[in-house]
Amino acid sequence: MRMKLRNVLIVVKDIEKSKQFYHDLFGLDMVLDNDGNMILTEGLVLQEEKIWREFLQKEIIPENHSCELYFEERDIEAFVQKLERLYPSVKYVNRLMTHSWGQKVIRFYDLDGNLIEVGTPM
Fold first, then answer.
1. Which superkingdom heads the taxonomic lineage of this protein's source (predicted)?
2. What mean pLDDT value characterizes the chain?
3. Does pTM surpass 0.85?
4. Looking at residue 87, what DSSP letter applies?
5. In this structure, are strands 92-98 and 104-109 parallel, antiparallel, or unpaired?
6. How far apart are CA 39 and CA 44, in angstroms?
7. N or C: which end of the chain has fewer CB within 10 A?
8. Interhelix angle 76-86/15-26, nearest 10 degrees
9. Would you say 76 and 120 are in contact if contact means Cβ atoms under 8 Å apart?
10. pLDDT tens, 73-98?
11. Diameter of the chain by CA atoms?
């Protein structure tokens, strides 16, 4: 029997701002709000930094480049326009580019330095 991956958790400073960010850009909605832990549709969990720090007893390192959230979008140009309109101060890793295999991608950080990639379907 295989285990099932249920969620991916990311650490955020302001859970309400992060909830709005992921709703605005990706259409994710809240499934459960449990006082500093919030489950969004698609299995993304937001956890307030103070709770995570208390559990781990370690510093949180934003922009650590050890993982990314990956989303696919057919109309990536429209997505980029929405991103620039709604979050003009977002920090980019790379703006819209096309890989040698033809996939278009953009990489940027969310409000807390979690890496996000949006690419066209392969």
1. Bacteria
2. 96
3. yes
4. -
5. antiparallel
6. 6
7. N
8. 150
9. yes
10. 999 999 999 999 999 999 999 999 99
11. 46
